[in-house]
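User: two proteins, same treatment. go.

Assistant:
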Amino acid sequence: MISNKHKILDAILEQGMLPLFYQDSESGSIEILRTLYKAGVRVFEYTNRGKSALSNFKKLKEIRDAEMPDLYLGIGTIKTPADANAFIEAGTDFIVAPIVNPAVAEIANKIGMLWVPGCMTPTEISVAQEHKAMLIKIFPANILGPEFISSIKDLFAGQLFMPTGGVEINADNLKTWFKAGVCAVGMGSKLISKDVMSKGLYDELFDNTQLALELIKQSK
């Protein structure tokens, strides 16, 4: 299946946030996906960070197809061509990576799929651009900070950046990132915390997701 990468990119920009998480539990993963969707999320990244990632992803795709046809479901933490191929076969809509692997870019580009690589340096950003990255994840954002985006964005005019790692559900924090020039933020453990996962705090997740989406709307 060829994804429409422009539509997915637009959905990420419109939402202003890409929620992401991994959990071993299949039922827990399903509940979190349902909660995010109910709170208004329409594009989402499951991360390939544990032994159950592929089987859980296949199940999430089934649930998505049955209950949430307007949700884009992507996979993150894709570092190798083997991982990319496995999740493309499982039906992912897009691919996110913590690194720039040109071999993964080639696989995504061949089928017209959105590939979002993670970069930490200007050289990595340049390599990502050479391999047609429309959106670049700045990772780890808590180490680099908004000043990094402010400093490099003129070097890469027109490039879309999304920080991931340490972005907070806080008006000042979000405003600082958007003012620095990002187009969206990746939201992992600050939104989908260990407590939410281990204790099943889905009402709290629902409220925090709605709050994050609202604060992002005000920050853009």
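Protein 2:
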Amino acid sequence: MLTVDFSRFPLAPGDRVLDLGCGAGRHAFECYRRGARVVALDRNGEEIREVAKWFAAMKEAGEAPAGATATAMEGDALALPFPDDSFDVVIISEVMEHIPDDKGVLAEMVRVLRPGGRIAVTVPRYGPEKVCWALSDAYHEVEGGHIRIYRADELLAKMREAGLRPYGTHHAHALHSPYWWLKCAFGVDNDKALPVRAYHKLLVWDIMKKPLATRLAERALNPLVGKSFVAYATKPHTPAQGEA
């Protein structure tokens, strides 16, 4: 299940890609399939080991084209172990809401992104996220949990302040918002509640089968209740007037 829309965020074979805070690796895997030279980085060593295993399995199965490479590594988003201008593309999906120093993370991403490079940032959308917070303290009051809710204009302003030029936005995963509302209402860790189990089965069916009806429904509902807000930006070749 991809949050970044690669029809709006073009990726060319050979592009150097950093998937920052890669988690289970969903975007890194897609970039690898598209022929990129991918680095998947996360602070969670267990997840990184799993991502590395999947990269190896994809290579063995021939899922990535010739020339594509993939590396999984542990690292700190506030101190990236790469030189300036190392990447053509940076993706950070559902990560910034967890990090106290989000401006520091943006600064590091801009540093390692080459001039003219592209960045995709996704965060939980303000409205659906507010509902989750209202329904459940356990949803966000946990170690490593969500510490802020972004308004779209706030995130875009921080991206501009970091020296990026946003060029597009959209919302994604409308069908997932009701699932998280149910989770919060019945207990975030209570997967046995009948409504939660039933809706989860629906989502799994939708992800596996990709029926046209639910694709059309989600496309219509995304502007209203899309779970994620997605912003795309470029790093200027030279600082824009008024930028530091």
